[in-house]
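Write out this protein's structure.
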Amino acid sequence: MKKLFSIGMLCVMLLGLVGCVDKETQETVKEYINTTSVYLMEQEQKMIESYSSVIGANFTDDSTLCMEFALNTIPMAENLKSAAEGISETITAEELLEVHNIYVSYISEFSEALNLFLTAVDEQDKTISAQANEKLSNANVLAAEFRTGLQRLAEKYEITSESK
């Protein structure tokens, strides 16, 4: 009887510990969604606005594109990449780290695409331009994977985004 009671208590204690870990992970994910990702996405939005200001319908000439990319868009992308890599070092929840690392990959691909675009314009090389477009396409896929992963975590841990 004493043995059964001890085994029962051990099970209760282990279940309690599992509950604490889930609660801790939930708080970590909540903080990431409501604070960290908000910061990253605000910085990302500035970078995208810079990028969009000189492409597509906003394209005027190669010189303007190169200036905007070199002086604004690429430095923003590099700063965002550095910030995201630094955040990686602070994340202790494995499943959150996996999702965050997708974001780091996205920003890295986007940054590489920008640099390739600059090279393509400078060298007037369509092959390099095609490589840049491929990297940009890969970056867009990674961005979608990140958002899907973040949404999955939010649903798993029953987290709603807080408005600031």
